[in-house]
Amino acid sequence: MSAFNQTSIADVNPGRTIAEADAAVASIKAARAAIGKVIYGQETVVERVLVTLLAGGHGLLVGVPGLAKTKLVETLGIVLGLEERRVQFTPDLMPSDILGSEVMDQDENGRRSFRFLKGPIFGQLLMADEINRASPRTQSALLQAMQEYHVTVAGQRYDLPSPFHVLATQNPLEQEGTYPLPEAQLDRFLLQIDVLYPDRDAERKMLFETTGASDAVAEKVTDAQSLKAIQQLVRRLPIGESVVEAILNLVRSARPGEIADSKLAGVIAWGPGPRASQALMLAVRARALIDGRYAPSVDDVIALAEPVLQHRMSLSFAARADGLTVRDVIGTLKSRIG
């Protein structure tokens, strides 16, 4: 579990950091505009995916087919100047299909040696399409790489490129023939991003823009090195004590042993661990920067509570039988810090 840099703007050259922040805000604004030319009516999804990337994490996109999840990842790769790869997860997919494998070569003298052929995981932005369709063994191979940023094949370590991000997709409806991700693996995702249907105006615009003689094309506005610089900047942004307390209060109140609200007693089966607090600490900074602010507020904590917590907690059987959902409980918890 990684430790977080507590350096603030006051600890470094403030003029230089503010200049970097101004440049980052302009770059992020240009990236959002470029994405908006291709992806219609998914402003919240785009914002949360950018939060995930700027915070240096991985995201789980949950939505029914046909909502442009694949198109979004492809567009992000172009706009951010990242090497993008895509893997369609299927039940027969093997770990070597993702990580790579060794092949035997023979030179002109007949001497044989093994050579490692890198798999699609050696890209800067990997789309794991329908990740829950692969076997647990294959899922584990990917998720271990997400945590450790390297793979080991035949005892040899191979570092992944930097930056390295995984955006996995999952269909929330069709569960037959799938292998749901275990809770410990879900915890590796910084955010769970729900992709909903577009509103009427966005869908109307989409009809005209995507069924004409030509489609809108994404344009590159930044590159991998600039993204890494912004990720480091995010970690240096100051964060007020009130925001830190809001993060701690929210995450700790979602744990069964620390529930103060009598109405929620017995509702939560298990709650988020410290990784959720860490995720919120980074995500609120990234969201503030995307919004053109140089320090997060409690409003950022409230806005990101659901995508950070919903895949890191579960309700009791009795609560589910009563029709409660995780989102209902998170909504109650947010009202306590709002």
UniProtKB/TrEMBL annotation:
<dbReference type="Pfam" id="PF07726">
    <property type="entry name" value="AAA_3"/>
</dbReference>
<dbReference type="InterPro" id="IPR011703">
    <property type="entry name" value="ATPase_AAA-3"/>
</dbReference>
<dbReference type="Pfam" id="PF17863">
    <property type="entry name" value="AAA_lid_2"/>
</dbReference>
<feature type="domain" description="ChlI/MoxR AAA lid">
    <location>
        <begin position="268"/>
        <end position="329"/>
    </location>
</feature>
<protein>
    <submittedName>
        <fullName>MoxR-like ATPase</fullName>
        <ecNumber>3.6.3.-</ecNumber>
    </submittedName>
</protein>
<feature type="domain" description="ATPase AAA-3">
    <location>
        <begin position="58"/>
        <end position="191"/>
    </location>
</feature>
<dbReference type="InterPro" id="IPR027417">
    <property type="entry name" value="P-loop_NTPase"/>
</dbReference>
<dbReference type="InterPro" id="IPR041628">
    <property type="entry name" value="ChlI/MoxR_AAA_lid"/>
</dbReference>
<dbReference type="GO" id="GO:0016787">
    <property type="term" value="F:hydrolase activity"/>
</dbReference>
<dbReference type="InterPro" id="IPR050764">
    <property type="entry name" value="CbbQ/NirQ/NorQ/GpvN"/>
</dbReference>
<keyword id="KW-0378">Hydrolase</keyword>
